[in-house]
C-alpha cells in the first residue's frame, strides 16, 4: 500500500498567501470584481461558440470490457475507439466504483473548502509542483483575468499525499484513487486494442505502475454575475485520461466547434482523452477542449483525476502508428514532469502547448 504523506507542518502565513483571496468569500457579493470579468476580456480570444444543449455524448459500458463474450468485448472496444476519435469524451457506466465512495469523496472535498481560510492557507504552496496545493483561479501570478474557482490539487500516485484536515480525507481519497486507477488501467487496455496495438501496450510503454495521478477538487460557488464570469476557461488536460465526477452540471465540451452541455447521470464517471494520449496516438485520438461555467444559485463541486505516464517518461508517437511520409510523427517528445511544470507555470491557453512539429 502506498505511503500516506500529510501536510502537517504548521506554516507561517506569508503576505502573498494572506492576499490570495478566494471566490468562496465573494459569493455573497452583489457584483464581481473587475478582475473576474472574463467575457469582456477573453471572449474573442477564446472563440466562444453557441451552446448545443441536447446533443448526446457517447456512453461506454465498462463492464463489457471484461466480458467473456468475444463479440461484446469487440463491440465495446470499437465504441471506445470511436468515442476517443470523434469526441475525446464519454460517459462511463457500470464502472465498479461504489456510488457511496464517490459521494463520500465529493462530501469530504466540500468539507475541505468549508474550513476556515486560515486552515486552508496552510496548503497554499506557491510552487506549482507542490504535492499539496490550495489556490484560486488557475495561476494568479500570470492570469490576465481570474476564474470563479477555488481548488485543491493533491498528488496521489506514485506517492500518496493528503492535507491534514479534514481528518478522513486521506482514507477516502486513497480508496477512491486506487479504485479509479484500476478503471483507467482497464480503459487503457481497451484503447490500446482500439489502436491496433497489444492490450497492455500503453500500460507498459507509459510505465503505468509508476503513473503520475493527481486529484483536483474544484469549488465553483454561486456567482452574482454568472454572465460575466467563467469557472474555468477552455483547456485540454495533461496526461492520458481524465476522470471527473460532480455534484451538479456545469461542464461543457467542445464538439465540432460548438459547446455541448454535459448532463451526467447518477453513478457515472465522465472521461476525456488528454494531451499525452493525443501525442502517443500521433493525433488519431485528440484531447478535447472543455470548460466550466458558473451559476448564481448553487455551489458546484467537481472532482478531477488526471492519470499520466511515469513522471520521467518521454512521450512520443507510437512507432506502429507512424508511417513515414504518409503519417509522420507530428509531436515532439518531452518528459511528463517537464510538460506539467511548463503548463502549470504559464497562463492557460487552450491547446496551444500541444503544437505539432512544423515540417
TrEMBL record:
User: What is the protein name for this chain?
Assistant: Fe2OG dioxygenase domain-containing protein
Q: Where are the transmembrane segments?
A: none
Give GO MF terms, alphabetically. Answer: metal ion binding; oxidoreductase activity
Q: Which organism is it from?
A: Aquilegia coerulea (Rocky mountain columbine)
At the top level, the lineage of the source is Eukaryota
Can you tell me which family this protein belongs to?
A: Belongs to the iron/ascorbate-dependent oxidoreductase family.
Q: Does the keyword Metal-binding apply?
A: yes
Key words of the record: Iron, Metal-binding, Oxidoreductase
Question: Domain Fe2OG dioxygenase: where?
Answer: 207-309
* Pfam families named among the record's database cross-references: 2OG-FeII_Oxy, DIOX_N
Amino acid at each position: 500500500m502506498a505511503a500516506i504523506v500529510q501536510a502537517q507542518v504548521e506554516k507561517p502565513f506569508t503576505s502573498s498567501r494572506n492576499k490570495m483571496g478566494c471566490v468562496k468569500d465573494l459569493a455573497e457579493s452583489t457584483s464581481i470584481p473587475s478582475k473576474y470579468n472574463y467575457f469582456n476580456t477573453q471572449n474573442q480570444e477564446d472563440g466562444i461558440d453557441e451552446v448545443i444543449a441536447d446533443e448526446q455524448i457517447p456512453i461506454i459500458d465498462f463492464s463489457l470490457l471484461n466480458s467473456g463474450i468475444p463479440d461484446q468485448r469487440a463491440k465495446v472496444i470499437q465504441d471506445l475507439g470511436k468515442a476517443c476519435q470523434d469526441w475525446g469524451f464519454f460517459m462511463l457506466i457500470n464502472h465498479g466504483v461504489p456510488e457511496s465512495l464517490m459521494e463520500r469523496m465529493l462530501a469530504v472535498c466540500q468539507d475541505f473548502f468549508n474550513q476556515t481560510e486560515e486552515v486552508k492557507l496552510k496548503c497554499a504552496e506557491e510552487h506549482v509542483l507542490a504535492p499539496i496545493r490550495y489556490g484560486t483561479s488557475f495561476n494568479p501570478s500570470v492570469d490576465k483575468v481570474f476564474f470563479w474557482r477555488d481548488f485543491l490539487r493533491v498528488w496521489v500516485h506514485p506517492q500518496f499525499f493528503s492535507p491534514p484536515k479534514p481528518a478522513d480525507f486521506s482514507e477516502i481519497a486513497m480508496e477512491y484513487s486506487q479504485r479509479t486507477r484500476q478503471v483507467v488501467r482497464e480503459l487503457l487496455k481497451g484503447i490500446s486494442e482500439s489502436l491496433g496495438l497489444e492490450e497492455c501496450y500503453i500500460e507498459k510503454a507509459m510505465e503505468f505502475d509508476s503513473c503520475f495521478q493527481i486529484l483536483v477538487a474544484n469549488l465553483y460557488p454561486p456567482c452574482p454575475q454568472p454572465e460575466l464570469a467563467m469557472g474555468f476557461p477552455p483547456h485540454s488536460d495533461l496526461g492520458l485520461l481524465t476522470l471527473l465526477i460532480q455534484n451538479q452540471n456545469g461542464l461543457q465540451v467542445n464538439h465540432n466547434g460548438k459547446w455541448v452541455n454535459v448532463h451526467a447521470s447518477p453513478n457515472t464517471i465522465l472521461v476525456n482523452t488528454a494531451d499525452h494520449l493525443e501525442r502517443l496516438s500521433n493525433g488519431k485520438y485528440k484531447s478535447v477542449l472543455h470548460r466550466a461555467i458558473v451559476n448564481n444559485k448553487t455551489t458546484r463541486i467537481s472532482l478531477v483525476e488526471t492519470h499520466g505516464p511515469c513522471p520521467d517518461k518521454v512521450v512520443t508517437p507510437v512507432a506502429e502508428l507512424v508511417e513515414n511520409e504518409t503519417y509522420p510523427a507530428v509531436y515532439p517528445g518531452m518528459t511528463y514532469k517537464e510538460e506539467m511544470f511548463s503548463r502549470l507555470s504559464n497562463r492557460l491557453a487552450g491547446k496551444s502547448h500541444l503544437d505539432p512539429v512544423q515540417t
